Amino acid sequence: MFDLFKIKIVYSKSHWVMPKIIIGVLIILGIIILIQESMKAKRENRPLFNFKGKRFFVENYDKLKLFGSIALLIIYIYAMKFLGFIFGSIIVISLFNILYSPKKDKKSILICIAISVIETLILWFVFGYLFEITLP
Amino acid sequence: MITFGIVQFFAALIGVIIGIIFGALPGMTATMAVVVFLPLTYAYDLSTSLYLLLGLYVGGISGGLIPAILINIPGTPSSITTGFDGYPMAKRGEGVRALRIGITASLVGGIISLIVLAFFTPVLARFAIKFSAVEKFLVILFAMTVIAALSRGNMTKGIFSGFLGVLISLIGIFPDNQMMRMVPKIFADQLRDGFQLLPVLIGLFAFSQMFEQAENGMKDTFVEEDVLKGKQTRKFSFKDLKGQSINLIRSSLIGTFIGVLPGVGGSAASLMSYSQCKAWSKHPEKLGTGQVEGLVASEAANNGLTGGALVPLLSLGIPGDSTTAALVGAFMLQGVQVGPLFISQNPKLWYTILFALLLCNILMFIVMFYPIKYLANIIKVPMSKLYPAVVLMSVVGAFSARNGNMFDVVTLIVFGVIGYLFGKIGLPSTTFLIGFILGRDLEKYFVDSLKGSGGSLLVFFQRPMGLVIWGLIIIFLIYAFFDNRRARKQNSAAA
């Protein structure tokens, strides 16, 4: 009966002991969550998966800013690869500032670019030059 | 005996000021301040870095009271109850008074928690030194139970999120037999050592927040009215705190205690303290209409958190909240092991931490108390100009953590999106992070225990100390079960 309480540790396979247990626990927890949700749904007399009237994003969410941020971050990786840290950062951080800026007239765009240039140069100076930290 | 000089003083001062700014801006948090500035500490030694990071922590927690009182929006989750009484006071023309009461209560909370930290940590550490792999495993298990127990009304999701963090932390090579697991072949090089803590941290706590703000249109300012413009009807005097000493001490201790419990954030501290204040108050019905006691309870508790959260970190190696989890990053980067041996192996660093925390609390008071009228303008700083700077610092931080690795920047973005999705489906990021930090240790102690016992699971029930920890786990689970049910009932009653 004590075999129930035994887990054999075989050296060559020991790297899978814990992941397997954790995956098992996660599956059990997942089932519990599902049961809880379906019980709750039953109590409130609604189907378990009710997507009607539910929304993933908040109402009138800002598509441009949300997806724009994610896209800009991906562009940033490539920009740093091909243009180097300083130019890549100045361009992408300017775009970030312009994207988030509520006003998009000429003056505020110029301010955005100026801020980005200053920020990038300060960071480059402090990290790359003073601290000698590797930059992209 | 401690590391202190002009550099450290300015590190603390700058930390406090930047922390206050992050704390005061709704949509930016103390944790974010610490994770974004972690990379700045690569260049300094650990003690100097800690002045900066603790300054950010104390400032970040304290700054949250400014918008809570002035515009009734908590600047950080931990100031959630500050506005209950602070905002009505500000509307009556007692804005400056409310702010100064809050700041003073914060200082008291910080100092009391510091005292607890100083005396309690060595005791706990001395106790924990005797732990074998079995107890170490159980303590981590206990920590994860506590996390789950206190995610009110959301217990299963809390546990799930914690274990998911553990699973993600196991990705990569297993040091015992040098075998890789859960790594797709194409990422074999990049994920050899799994995901790095720093980009995961910054992604979960800075980028996900940014995505959330972007989704909401990145509002430039939350300020619609200027409550400090009108004539102030009542001035602050330290007499305002007369009769509040018991409340101050109780609230600070509640905050500290909540801080000691792993994974429980500041919002729980201030909520619990506020409800206790209500329970003990002579006029509970008046709370919420602008009472000094409510304000004191909230602010003393959330600053009490700071010292408390460091207790389990420095004695057991288990972070008390998301911000101290970020501090783990700093210790790891500098190659210092936090755990039971920390104090005895690094006495100088330990005293430096205590001193730095004291200094940061005092600096926080000085920086906030006198110029509060001008400081209140912080909440007008446009978030749209700050977030791009956060992006820049985060990317540099992630990239340079391992001396220039673009994969870590990818990790950063991926975990930013994951954190954002977690928020959408109601999985708590903090529990995930703590699982992620402790996952490798959990595995090591589990496998070591079993190797020692020849594979018998009974080893976890044979040592007296282990049984005590099991007892604690069970107590917390029972508490959690009932508390969870009560919370659900309250929720459905409210709905």
UniProtKB/TrEMBL annotation, chain A:
<protein>
    <submittedName>
        <fullName>Tripartite tricarboxylate transporter TctB family protein</fullName>
    </submittedName>
</protein>
<feature type="transmembrane region" description="Helical">
    <location>
        <begin position="66"/>
        <end position="96"/>
    </location>
</feature>
<keyword id="KW-1133">Transmembrane helix</keyword>
<dbReference type="Pfam" id="PF07331">
    <property type="entry name" value="TctB"/>
</dbReference>
<feature type="transmembrane region" description="Helical">
    <location>
        <begin position="21"/>
        <end position="39"/>
    </location>
</feature>
<feature type="transmembrane region" description="Helical">
    <location>
        <begin position="108"/>
        <end position="131"/>
    </location>
</feature>
<keyword id="KW-0812">Transmembrane</keyword>
<feature type="domain" description="DUF1468">
    <location>
        <begin position="17"/>
        <end position="136"/>
    </location>
</feature>
<keyword id="KW-0472">Membrane</keyword>
<dbReference type="InterPro" id="IPR009936">
    <property type="entry name" value="DUF1468"/>
</dbReference>
TrEMBL record, chain B:
<feature type="transmembrane region" description="Helical">
    <location>
        <begin position="349"/>
        <end position="372"/>
    </location>
</feature>
<feature type="transmembrane region" description="Helical">
    <location>
        <begin position="50"/>
        <end position="71"/>
    </location>
</feature>
<feature type="transmembrane region" description="Helical">
    <location>
        <begin position="158"/>
        <end position="174"/>
    </location>
</feature>
<feature type="transmembrane region" description="Helical">
    <location>
        <begin position="98"/>
        <end position="121"/>
    </location>
</feature>
<keyword id="KW-0472">Membrane</keyword>
<feature type="transmembrane region" description="Helical">
    <location>
        <begin position="133"/>
        <end position="152"/>
    </location>
</feature>
<feature type="transmembrane region" description="Helical">
    <location>
        <begin position="6"/>
        <end position="38"/>
    </location>
</feature>
<feature type="transmembrane region" description="Helical">
    <location>
        <begin position="194"/>
        <end position="211"/>
    </location>
</feature>
<feature type="transmembrane region" description="Helical">
    <location>
        <begin position="384"/>
        <end position="401"/>
    </location>
</feature>
<feature type="transmembrane region" description="Helical">
    <location>
        <begin position="413"/>
        <end position="438"/>
    </location>
</feature>
<feature type="domain" description="DUF112">
    <location>
        <begin position="10"/>
        <end position="433"/>
    </location>
</feature>
<keyword id="KW-0812">Transmembrane</keyword>
<feature type="transmembrane region" description="Helical">
    <location>
        <begin position="458"/>
        <end position="482"/>
    </location>
</feature>
<keyword id="KW-1133">Transmembrane helix</keyword>
<dbReference type="InterPro" id="IPR002823">
    <property type="entry name" value="DUF112_TM"/>
</dbReference>
<feature type="transmembrane region" description="Helical">
    <location>
        <begin position="253"/>
        <end position="274"/>
    </location>
</feature>
<dbReference type="Pfam" id="PF01970">
    <property type="entry name" value="TctA"/>
</dbReference>
<protein>
    <submittedName>
        <fullName>Putative tricarboxylic transport membrane protein</fullName>
    </submittedName>
</protein>
